[in-house]
UniProtKB/TrEMBL annotation:
GO terms for biological process: protein transport. PANTHER family: ARRESTIN C-TERMINAL-LIKE DOMAIN-CONTAINING PROTEIN, ARRESTIN DOMAIN CONTAINING PROTEIN. Gene3D superfamilies: 2.60.40.640. The gene is Cbn-arrd-19. InterPro entries: Arrestin-like_C (IPR014752), Arrestin-like_N (IPR011021), Arrestin_C-like (IPR011022), Arrestin_domain-protein (IPR050357), Ig_E-set (IPR014756). This is CBN-ARRD-19 protein. Pfam families: Arrestin_C, Arrestin_N. Residues 413-432 are annotated as: Disordered. Residues 181-330 form the Arrestin C-terminal-like domain. One of its GO terms (cellular component) is cytoplasm. It comes from Caenorhabditis brenneri (Nematode worm). Residues 413-426 have a biased composition (Polar residues). Belongs to the arrestin family.
Length: 454
């Protein structure tokens, strides 16, 4: 019997969808002969999953009464269900349970919930969304086609005041140790704002003051993706309600740090001298910051800077700051050509922010959303976010709040970690799934406090 082909196609060719908006497309069945089928269903699923094994020592007593310890494997896991819905596309009504040879097309549409996190693949967990078409076949194995999709929330930096807040950190330490102390080294670090988007350049302004007797030889800068995973002994499954799951007992946490981008620059700062310089790190395709609507997986980003000397012991000093990765760049720092000014949007100014050294940048609840406008007010007709259909599609919403999309042209690119970033349940799809994230190309570098070029 010839193969029968089952396909799932989407109206959005990038297969990137926004919370609160519809997933639409069609299921296609092509058969060259009569095909036994009772019904055709489509299933929409979204979940977060964490999973790992640890080992612990367990005391055992043998038949002679002697105690000894053995290693026992203990599983920790957690599942959070964000969506699970099944719809009937076709059912046999005449009792034949048969489809004639030919091509069949069934359209579908499903509105995603508004408060779901972005797709993500990590070492100890993932956030994954899928669409599965299934043919119910009597007395035979069902035929199914599963497609993973990317969900990408609109994390608009324009409506997060602290995204525009400059970051500052400084460090100083003695070079050398004990009887070999060689003075001290001081470093001051400034980043002109907190919020960035993939494709944008993160400028790092350094002021190095060498009060030691040895020269500074090197500066290193890197951006790290800090992933935290929560799981429970012997597992737990939750339906997501927006409430915290952290009250459950036997909770364990794993952390994974991934390099996003690194840069090393050789330089010489002689003893009793100082030097200013700027480093630039361009963000590749990475998931936006995840710290809302995701109780078992969080993703944040750290900038680490290290200055090294020729000293054998205690030769370097370090600084660390947290940055926020969004999906819509800050409008006021871009040339007018990117989008015209919108008088309906209120101006947003930087706000003071307490020092957050390695503590993560936490957007306020409901990040990425703005309140609805009062009746009779001027509508916020911001330029449409790419891929939303030129403004023809309804805007994403959260309760009574409406997301105002606004951004210059972008592209959707596979996660920088590729299939290597997909490490759990890699065999549940035809091939490991790689999520796509918005990347903004050719954005100008915003660095008003940059030191003069050397």
């Amino acid at each position: 019997m010839p193969d029968t082909e089952l396909l799932v196609e989407f109206d959005q060719p990038q297969e990137v969808f926004f919370p609160g908006q519809p997933i639409s497309g069609r299921v296609i069945l092509i058969t060259e002969e009569k095909y036994k089928a009772r019904a055709v269903n489509i299933k929409f699923e979204g979940c977060a999953k964490t999973d790992w094994d640890d080992h612990e020592s367990v005391r055992r007593v043998d038949a002679e009464g002697k105690a000894h310890y053995v290693q026992q494997r203990v599983n920790y896991s957690a599942n959070v269900k964000y969506l699970e819905s099944t719809a009937l596309l076709w059912a046999c009504r005449d009792g034949t349970n048969e489809l004639a040879a030919g091509k069949y097309v069934w359209p579908f549409s499903y509105n995603l919930p508004a408060n779901i996190p972005p797709s993500f693949e990590g070492k100890y967990g993932y956030i994954r969304y899928s669409v599965t078409a299934e043919v119910d076949r009597p007395w035979r194995f069902d035929k199914a086609k599963k497609r993973c999709i990317t969900v990408s929330p609109l994390l608009d930096l324009n409506i997060l005041p602290h995204a525009m807040t400059p970051l500052h950190d400084e460090a100083s330490d003695t070079v050398g140790c004990c009887c070999f102390k060689k003075g001290y080294l001081e470093m001051r670090v400034d980043i002109p704002k907190t919020g960035f988007v993939p494709g944008e350049t993160v400028p790092i302004n350094l002021h190095i003051l060498n009060h030691s007797s040895v020269p500074v030889t090197e500066v290193k800068a890197k951006i790290l993706q800090q992933c935290k995973f929560v799981a429970f002994r012997h597992g737990n499954t939750f339906d997501f309600t927006g409430e915290s799951l952290m009250a459950h007992s036997a909770r364990e946490q794993k952390q994974d740090m991934n390099a996003v981008i690194k840069q090393t620059q050789a330089l010489t700062v002689a003893p009793s001298n100082e030097h200013k310089l700027a480093l630039e790190l361009r963000l590749p395709s990475v998931t936006p910051t995840i710290n809302q609507n995701s109780p078992i997986i969080t993703v944040e980003y750290l900038v680490q800077i290290s200055v090294d000397t020729t000293s054998t012991f205690s030769s370097d000093i370090d600084c660390e700051m947290s940055v926020l990765i969004g999906t819509v760049p800050i409008r006021q720092y871009l040339p007018p050509a990117y989008y015209p000014p919108n008088p309906a949007l209120p101006p947003v100014m930087p706000t003071p922010m307490p020092p957050q050294i390695g503590g993560g940048v936490a957007p306020p609840p409901g990040y990425g959303f703005v309140p609805p406008q009062p009746e009779g007010s001027v509508p916020m007709n911001a330029p449409p976010y790419p891929g939303v259909g030129g403004g023809a599609e309804p805007l994403p919403s959260k309760g009574d709040a409406v997301v105002i999309p606004s951004a210059p042209p972008l592209s959707y690119q596979d996660s920088m970690y590729g299939t290597g970033g997909t490490q759990l349940n890699t065999d549940e799809n035809e091939k490991p799934f790689v999520p796509k994230y918005p990347v903004f190309n050719d954005l100008p570098v915003y660095n008003p406090s940059a030191p003069p070029p050397e």
